[in-house]
Amino acid sequence: MKAWQFTGTDKPLELNEVPEPSAGPGQVVVEVKAAGVCHSDVSTLDDPGWMALFPTLPRTMGHENAGIITEVGEGMDQWKVGDRVGLAPVMSDGDALGYGKWDGGFGPRMVATADNLVKLPDEVPFDLGAMATDAGLTAYHAIMAVGGAKAGMKVGVIGLGGLGYIGARVAALSGAEVYGAEVNPETRKLKDEIGLKDVADSIDAFKDKGLELIVDYAGFGTTTAAAVETLAEFGTFVQVGMGRLEATINTYPLIINQLTLKGSKSGTKEDLENLYALMRSGELNPPMNLITHADIPDAIDKLRAGGVVGRFIAMYDNA
Q1: pTM, to two decimals
Q2: Which residue in 97, 125, 63, 112 sits closest to 276, CA to CA?
Q3: Degrees to nearest 5, angle at CA 188 with 186 and 194
Q4: CA distance 235 to 154
Q5: What are the pLDDT digits (tens) for 197-229?
Q6: In the predicted model, is pLDDT for residue 30 greater than 60?
Q7: pLDDT-derived band of residue 171, with 50, 70 and 90 as boundaries?
Q8: Residue 97 CA: distances (Å) to CA of 28, 103, 106, 111, 201
Q9: Is 8 in contact with 25 (CB distance < 8 Å)?
């Protein structure tokens, strides 16, 4: 089968012939129906800091996946051929699908384990199911589990793309008063659809709102700095986005306002189940751009250039 593989920093993805996977003990094979393309895929290709996550190359990328189980290995009797599943990307050994020693979903079939598998309700299509596994899972975990968003809380969300849209929408559905920051004017038009109280191009436009929690889904350094300047006393900042791997912040407001800074990575299978319940109800339906497997490198180029509204989801011929 053919898969898009990472071969090193500053190199384009290569479409290589790779062996068909088989299910060993504690494993299943999933026929990929939908695979999301993420900003972190751009960073992986462009930033040498990501090379530490790839002890061996080449590696089939793609960490946002949904599909159907086609083979069940020994010890996986709770699953059966034909089950619809979403795949939580992080493994118990600290690796993730599409990184380390685990191939991802930029190929038509992939191996998964009990660490990954979450039942995908029949009412949730594969494109939404794939988006939820990273953009959704990461967004939900950061704002709800780590940030503690709840009804009545004043919350800021930086970046309203694939992750931020979901994070802001989930917080709004929980009853929080949500303010968004987004540089793309087209994305700012989604204000009412998301349920935002207000939106601006930078979070520091809301310094007077008393924001108790700010989650940065962009992570471009300047966004981190703006959040620290904006938070109310005893506020919490959660960093998720990895647009840049460093930031310079003013420590004065950090100290004087006694702020809490946290990082958040991915999430749990329980988070994913909660997301699927929201998607099943129709209350969470983020914008998507459906593409083909062949379009994955072009989608990465478009993400690199910026200005994309919605998540790129590759729908495979077998979907």
Answers
A1: 0.83
A2: 125
A3: 120
A4: 10
A5: 999 999 999 999 999 999 999 999 999 999 999
A6: yes
A7: very high
A8: 14, 6, 10, 9, 33
A9: no
- Cis previous bond, 58, omega within 30: yes
CA dist 100 and 92 (Å) reads 12
Nearest C-alpha neighbor of 169 from the set 206, 132, 205: 132
Whether residue 47 contacts residue 31, with contact meaning beta carbons closer than 8 Å, is answered with: no
User: What does the pLDDT look like over 151-169, one tens digit per residue?
Assistant: 999 999 999 987 899 999 9
DSSP 105: S
Interatomic CA distance for residues 83 and 69, integer angstroms: 5
AA letter at 266: S
| Residue 124 to residue 286: CA distance in whole angstroms | 12
Beta bridge pairs of residue 72: 28
Q: Which residue has the tokens 């993420």?
A: 38
Predicted local confidence at residue 304, as pLDDT: 94
Task: Round to whole Å and give the CA distance between 88 and 182.
Answer: 27
In 33-161, where does DSSP find H-type helix?
39-46, 126-131, 137-140
C-alpha to C-alpha distance for 310 and 318, rounded to whole angstroms: 23
Residue 144 has phi, psi (to 5 degrees) of -100, -55
Q: Does position 137 have pLDDT exceeding 70, yes or no?
A: yes
